[in-house]
Amino acid sequence: MSATRHFLTLLDFSPQELQQLIQRGIEMKREHRAGKDQRAFPGTSLAMIFSKSSTRTRVSFEAGIAHLGGQAMFLSPQDTQLGRGEPIEDSARVISSMVDIVVIRTFGHDIAQRFAANSKVPVINALTDDYHPCQLLADMQTYVEHRGSIAGKSVCWVGDGNNMCQSYINAARQFDFELRIACPPGFEPKAELLEANSDRVHIEHDPMVAARGCDLLVTDVWASMGQEEEQLERAKQFKPYQINSALMGEAAGDALYMHCLPAHRGEEISAQLMDAPDTVIWDEAENRLHAQKALMETLLLANRA
Ligand code: CP
Ligand code: NVA
Description:
The protein is α/β, with parallel strands linked by helices. It has helices at about 15-35, 55-65, 90-95, 110-115, 135-145, 165-175, 190-195, 205-210, 230-235, 245-250, 270-275, 280-305; strands at about 45-50, 70-75, 100-105, 125, 155-160, 180, 200-205, 215-220, 255-260.
């Protein structure tokens, strides 16, 4: 059997594979809505290791594997030996000998990498401090559904240079768009990631300048999970970094805005835009389900080959 394939960042798949994944997510959504039986993987077990909170990711993976005919087990560090110091490598060897696919949400990206390096089955990154690639599958699917191909478009990231922003940098490369990052000084994404993508990714600290003519604006919380104690200080520095109607006024006339959620109305996004009847944010959240079903299908099939 060929080497086990994982999905730890968008760079684990080629641009062509990512395009296929998005199209398959769109198709699986249509099939699901039409009531089609999608149980192509009966008896499949999914282990879900979550060291951070989650609503969307947990529910979408649990529902998704059930749609595919399999079942999920939710593993928190509190209830497993992971929380009592069993090495991640040993845990990976044992867990992957019993299940068919693993989803992991954790802190350091190296933890997901070390798990994958010792896993016999595909490992999916469900968010680390550095990347959140599953969210990008849903975001890209949502853009394609509403506006068609994102290739050649301009995207403006508004806010922290965090795991979502860094995933957008990878997406800019893989989906071929320009990315302008409007972050407060001192909150830039990793320098090496910026350098490696300097042909299409730029920092522009002024959000009103960065948003000009953009096709998509994206934001995320000012303080991510694990940064709770920085919330008050960040709230001061991030105040100008809000997606609201004034900022959307700078963007292209048909520009969309997205947010991975959970959102803080009145901080990174205005309540008016969050609650706008035509927002695509709820489609974006729902698409986590469809995109990840396509992802699990692809990885399960690849691991069978
Ligand atoms: N967007 C996202 O990953 O949400 P959860 O933290 O609720 O899973
Ligand atoms: N940047 C956020 C994303 C939550 C889905 C966090 O890491 O908490």
